[in-house]
């Protein structure tokens, strides 16, 4: 299985390559990708340098242009596809059907991967993208149980990439409009979720409060560690119960599932986290390189090692891990 | 300006009702001034009180009352069983289908059947509409987050490209905002999803989620679906919709007072806005922000013209 790692910046890209990523993925500095953060992502010059660095070391580079262009901004998204093509990326990660068609027509030789933002959760949906746009690979949304992944993999017309580690979207990706409901900006349209420009912190008599566009997302006691107010991970009131009604801050970690994923023929595992620091990317890549090498050598004797979990635990959101939807009970 | 030519359509019921409630509701709907009605369970495969045969029976009643009937497909397809249900739905032989994900689009296009593109298909631009039109789509529901100005541009450019497509806008109701593999209603009751005891049926208008200080009803939990806390109300925007070429305003069913909602929208498309009756059953926080290019939860001031 291939290890696909996040590159939110040139230093992060280099660290991922150095630590043994088989591929890295990046986006440009605008709304054409789903991780539009201030100070993150790549200019043309930095992308060129990163791609040269990766290619010289046998690592492939994917470019994520995985948000949905509006009718008035088609030109910008198409320009991003053309730019990625001229940079000679190894694959384009796309979600919008119109943009997939554009890439297939203009740059047929560059493989197209269906982004997780394409929200394809069945082999029937993948068959549509395969038939229409000749996609080579799809990244699966984090909503399927391991049994559902198995059923899908059995009939999939394309290679599959699944998330192995990192922050967890609780909603089917590409079909979550919660962020724009609160702020007017969503992953689909602006490449952001719960954008920082709308975040306010306030110290109040009831505790430290985080707000998103004025809406109270969470309130922390003095002894609690405050987290970023991603709106689905706040604490809300449902019939008098105040708590994480949607999802608690936690990270996905599939160390225990890896042999099963390999047995299903999953082609690549993806590490989430383009918004994370180069040091984080280096640590996670280092561990997962060891994991995959161990799996390759040990085969059926694969056992998750204690020091892997120990290395990954402090890197998790909320310092806790879950198998997420892969595990039926989580639902 | 009025929107007399704008049709009214009824969207699928988001919530999980009892069988009796569905039948009683649609019996009333036969008498409402609606052009089309979308039926079916679009949220959760565990909601099985209504069989396909029941939906077809209701469909035939509505068709006899002169409504165009569409069957909505499940939005989040996860299992082989979901795909089998989808196949049965697409092969029903009587009514057209609203495709709520690309699995349905593929199945319907392979079968050569015309279909409606649902609101979660992410149809934001003309090239995408062209692909779906080629696959058999004859009507689409605009994405909930699409501002009115962007929709006007999209429809104008689609016409210019020679694309003849009907367009519906979700004009009334809690907005469908997200789908998860997790069931939030079952989780609230500390039931595992596989043994949810069908608690959704206790909430015929969903389960309200508010901020900790109760200052705002933020979302409406509805099983695996998250709806807006506020109720979208675009009755004052109908003329604008008609002018840009929207063909129908879609009203999303609620369990009480839906006859009043339909009657109000019927008047509104004639430019009439009677003061709400003090006895009105419908009393929810309203929003229209998406249409006005703002946060969806916002309520922008409107002009009564």
What does this entry look like structurally?
The complex is a heterodimer of chains A (331) and B (305). Chain A has 331 residues and is α/β, with parallel strands linked by helices. Chain A has helices spanning 10-18, 44-56, 74-86, 97-106, 123-133, 146-155, 178-183, 187-190, 258-263, 278-298, 306-312, and strands spanning 2-6, 23-26, 60-65, 91-94, 112-114, 137-139, 159-167, 199-204, 207-212, 215-220, 236-238, 241-243, 251-253, 268-271, 321-322. Chain A starts with a strand and ends in a 9-residue tail after the last strand. Chain B has 305 residues and is an alpha/beta fold. Chain B has helices at residues 19-29, 52-64, 80-90, 102-110, 126-135, 148-160, 184-188, 238-244, 258-268; strands at residues 7-10, 36-39, 68-72, 96-99, 115-117, 137-141, 166-179, 207-210, 217-222, 225-233, 248-251, 286-287. Chain B has an eight-stranded parallel barrel with strand order 1-2-3-4-5-6-7-11, surrounded by five helices. In chain B, α3 (80-90) crosses α4 (102-110). The radius of gyration of chain B is 18 Å and the shape is globular. The termini of chain B are close together.
CATH class category of the largest domain in chain A: Alpha Beta
Which regions of chain A are unreliable across 5 or more consecutive residues at pLDDT < 50?
none
From N to C, what is the helix and strand string of chain A?
EHEHEHEHEHEHEHHEEEEEEHEHHE
**What is the total number of structural domains of chain B?**
1
Mean pLDDT of chain B: 95
For the largest interface, the chains and their residue counts are:
A-B, 70 and 71 residues
Mean pLDDT of chain A: 95
Provide a count of the helices of chain B. Answer: 9
How are the strands ordered across the major sheet of chain A? 1-2-3-4-5-6-7-14
What's the CATH C level of chain B? Alpha Beta
**Helix run count of chain A:** 11
Largest sheet of chain A: 8 strands, parallel, barrel
H/E series of chain B: EHEHEHEHEHEHEHEEEHEHE
Can you tell me the CATH topology of chain B?
Answer: TIM Barrel
CATH superfamily name of the largest domain in chain A? Aldolase class I
């Amino acid at each position: 299985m291939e290890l696909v790692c996040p590159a939110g910046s040139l230093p992060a890209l280099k660290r991922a390559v150095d630590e043994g990523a088989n591929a890295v993925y990046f986006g440009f500095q605008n709304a054409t990708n789903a991780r539009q953060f201030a100070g993150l992502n790549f200019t043309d010059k930095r992308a060129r340098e990163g791609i040269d660095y990766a290619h010289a070391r046998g690592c492939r580079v994917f470019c994520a242009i995985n948000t949905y262009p509006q009718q008035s901004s088609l030109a910008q998204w198409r320009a991003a596809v053309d730019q990625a093509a001229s940079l000679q990326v190894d694959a384009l990660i796309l979600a919008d059907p119109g943009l997939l068609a554009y890439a297939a027509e203009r740059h047929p030789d560059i493989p197209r991967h269906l982004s997780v933002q394409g929200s394809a959760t069945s082999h029937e949906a993948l068959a549509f993208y395969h038939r229409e746009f000749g996609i080579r690979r799809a990244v699966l949304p984090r909503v399927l149980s391991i049994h559902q992944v198995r059923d899908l993999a059995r009939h999939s017309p394309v290679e599959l990439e699944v998330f192995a580690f990192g922050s967890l979207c609780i909603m089917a990706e590409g079909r979550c409009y919660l962020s724009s409901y609160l702020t007017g900006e969503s992953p689909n349209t602006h490449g952001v979720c719960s954008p920082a420009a709308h975040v306010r912190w306030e110290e109040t008599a009831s505790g430290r409060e985080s707000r998103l566009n004025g809406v109270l997302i969470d309130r922390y006691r003095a002894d609690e560690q405050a987290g970023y107010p991603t709106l689905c991970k706040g604490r809300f009131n449902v019939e008098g119960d105040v708590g994480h009604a949607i999802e608690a801050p936690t990270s996905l970690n599939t160390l225990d599932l890896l042999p099963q994923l390999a047995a299903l023929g999953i082609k690549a595992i993806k590490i989430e986290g383009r918004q994370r620091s180069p040091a984080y990317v280096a640590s996670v890549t280092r561990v997962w390189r060891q994991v995959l090498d161990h799996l390759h050598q040990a085969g059926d004797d694969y056992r998750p090692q204690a020091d892997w979990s120990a290395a990954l635990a402090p890197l998790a959101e909320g310092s806790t891990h879950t198998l997420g939807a892969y595990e039926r009970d989580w639902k | 300006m009025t929107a007399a030519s704008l049709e009214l359509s009824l969207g699928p019921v988001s919530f999980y009702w009892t069988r009796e409630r569905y039948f009683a509701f649609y019996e009333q709907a036969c008498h409402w001034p609606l052009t089309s009605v979308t039926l079916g369970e679009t949220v959760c495969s565990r909601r099985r009180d209504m069989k396909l045969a029941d939906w077809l029976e209701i469909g035939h009643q509505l068709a006899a009352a002169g409504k165009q009937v569409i069957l909505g497909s499940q939005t989040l397809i996860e299992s082989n069983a979901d795909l089998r249900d989808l196949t049965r739905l697409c092969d029903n032989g009587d009514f057209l289908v609203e495709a709520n994900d690309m699995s349905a689009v593929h199945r319907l296009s392979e079968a050569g059947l015309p279909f409606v593109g649902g609101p979660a298909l992410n149809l934001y631009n003309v090239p995408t509409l062209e692909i779906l039109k080629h696959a058999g789509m004859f009507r689409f529901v605009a994405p909930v987050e699409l501002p009115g100005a962007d929709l006007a541009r999209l429809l104008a450019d689609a016409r210019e490209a020679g694309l003849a497509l009907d367009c519906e806008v979700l004009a009334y109701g809690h907005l469908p905002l997200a789908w998860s593999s997790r069931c939030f209603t079952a989780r609230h009751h500390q039931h595992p999803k596989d043994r949810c005891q069908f608690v959704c049926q206790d909430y015929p208008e969903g389960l309200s989620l508010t901020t900790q200080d109760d200052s705002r009803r933020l979302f409406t939990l509805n099983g695996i679906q998250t709806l807006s806390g506020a109720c979208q109300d675009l009755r004052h925007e109908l003329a604008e919709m008609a002018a840009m070429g929207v063909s129908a305003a879609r009203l999303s069913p609620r369990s009480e007072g839906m006859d009043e909602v339909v009657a109000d929208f019927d008047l509104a498309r004639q430019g009439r806005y009677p003061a709400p009756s003090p006895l009105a059953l419908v009393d929810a926080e309203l929003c229209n922000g998406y249409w006005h290019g703002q946060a969806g939860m916002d309520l922008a001031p409107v002009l009564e013209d």
